Each structure stands twice: as structure tokens, then as C-alpha cells.
Amino acid sequence: MDFSLTEEQQLIQQAARDFAQNDLFPEVIERDEEQRFPKEEVRKMGELGFLGMMVDPKYGGSGLDTLSYVLVMEELSKVDASSSVIVSVNNSLVCWGLETYGTEEQKEKYLTKLSTGEIIGAFCLSEPEAGSDATSQKTTALDKGDHYVINGTKNWITNGSSAEVYLVIAQTDKDKRHKGINALIVEKGAEGFEIGPKENKLGIRGSDTHSLIFNDVKVPKENRIGEDGFGFKFAMKTLAGGRIGIAAQALGIAAGAYELALKYSKERKAFGTEISNHQAIAFKLADMHTQIEAARHLVYKAAWDKDNGNNYDLSGAMAKLYASQVAMETTVEAVQIHGGNGFVKDYHVERLMRDAKITQIYEGTSEIQKIVISRSILKG
Fold first, then answer.
1. Which residue is catalytic, options 33, 75, 363, 367?
2. Is the pLDDT of residue 167 over 80?
3. pLDDT grade for 135, boundaries at 50, 70 and 90
4. pLDDT band at 166 (very low <50, low <70, confident <90, very high)
5. Which residue among 58, 172, 192, 231 is the one 20 to 30 A from 135 at the CA level?
6. What number of other Cβ atoms are within 10 A of residue 98's Cβ?
């Protein structure tokens, strides 16, 4: 087993680390408080190639492997999970789905702009009554011959108001249940397409999360991804890869909190010595480091599976389940190590703790990951 990174991967990791520290860090607290979308930072991430990392260069992408993408996600998430989730959605849910299942015309029209960051995309699956239960789509896409007419509401959509391209999952034939679902490309500005109010969230507050409303929105047939009825399979395949990105985000949040706690423990003194010299603190750090390293191996293994053409449903689900758990536990301990300072915004760990929670919820809750894992091991 070779756990070493290639020279190229190390350079990519360092580039992401430098960008996170130099560009994301300076105003990250202000963006969180103001719920401000990192527009300028997203533009720079596009220039660095972070928004189409796994896309073939012929469509404007970086043509890199999944592990390189995971390394970037980890470094960005150490500092600003609001920015990293934009990278995750654009790469894992939008670009990957279009490149893997889209037509050549769809790739030329949309993917070339998405992969360079000229525009960003959104993935629209969740609904008021269809979050984890993705088969129960209430949004409809009625077949009108040469076009579909979409009606319904989508909830908790990342990049909700900032995207230009939306991949919408909708029900065409409810009698067929999951086999009657389609995935359609909807452009911003389409008649009848409205963006609802911005959600006031616990964490990742710099990311813009909105409800989307569709009132008789006409979508041409050429904007359907895959064959008729392929939408549910498209969503599940896309989410399987998306979970690796969110697992990497959770890993980064945990690692960022740990690094802050380790540094603080060597500076803060109590009872005449640095608090890192007290066993109670030293043991916390030992547990945090061990859990993060275990999560890192799960995340990297899932990325390796994807890169090597292996089935990554199980490894991706395990990585997301465990990494998100570690993110939550590690950030809570980081706040504890900081004591009273951990409860104020200037020390960053309270924000990381708030950001960590969403990794246990979106792109498949922890409970859904356990369903995926249990089904896989019981079949085996």
C-alpha cells in the first residue's frame, strides 16, 4: 500500500493551502456574520482550476484525479467551509454529472463554462417532503412532446441565487415512481422560475441557500440528461461521488479545528504551564489526531476507489459517515480546549463547530449513509 502523494498532488495541495490562508482567511468571519457569498473568491477559485478539477481539459477542466480534488476540498475547508461547498457542488454534483451522462451538445453549451468558473451550477433534488426520501418527488416535469413543463418547489439548494445552471430532478410519470423521474437542465432567468428567500442558517452562512419555485417552466427536450426515466439513477450516481466531496469537507473542518486547538494549547497557560502539558488536554489532542487520521484514510480510500474504477458506494458512504462524525466531535473539543475564548468568534473554532453539523445532514444524512452501508454489507 502506497500512502504517499505524487509531486503534482503535493503542489495542488500547497496551492489550495496558500489560497485558503491568503484569500479565504482574511474576511471569513465577516462573510459568516453577513451571510455574504464569496463572489470574488469564487472567481479566483475558477482561475485556479478548482471548479472543474476532474473535467477533461477539452471542456476547460483541469483533468485531475479525485484524490487531488479531495486534497483541495480538505485545505479549503480548514478555513472556510462556505467556499468549499461551492467547490464541492460545482465539481461533484454538476460538472461530473454533465460530463458523465450529458450529451456532447450539453457539454459544449454548459460544461465548458462551469468547469472554468465562468458560471457555477446547482443541483436540485431536495423538496419540502422529499429530502432523504428522494423517490417521493412532488416537483413534476410533464412531457409535452418537444418540451417539459416543470411545476414544484425545491428546498435547501446550495448556490441557489448564484448559479446560472440548475440540474433539476422532477417526476414525469408518478405511476412509475423512481423509474418515472427525469433530470433536466434549467437556465437562470427561465420564465416562471423564481428564487425564494435566502435561508438564515446555523453554519456555512457564506454559502447562499435558497428555495426554488417552478411555475409552468418550459424546458426543451434536449435539456434532459440521459434517457426518459433516468433521473433517479442520475441523482443517486451523482450523490455517491458528492459524498466523497462532503467527506473531504468534514475532514478539512476537523483538521482545521484541530490545528487551531493544538496551536492554542501551546500558547495558553494555566497552573503555571502551557495547557498542552496537562494530561486532560494532551489526551484530547491525541484522540482528535487519531480520529482525523482515520477519517483521512477513509476519505482517501473512497477517492482511490473512484479513480480506479471500483464501486465506491460503500467506501464513499463510510467516509462521509465517519468524517462528519469526527468533524462534529473534533470541533466541540476544539471549543472546549479554547475555553471561554472558544465561545467567541475571533478564535474561529465556534464557526467551525457550526459548519461541521451540516456535513451530517446534506448529500445524505448520517442515517441514510448507514442504510447504504448496511445494505452493502448484508448483500455481500
1. 363
2. yes
3. confident
4. very high
5. 192
6. 26
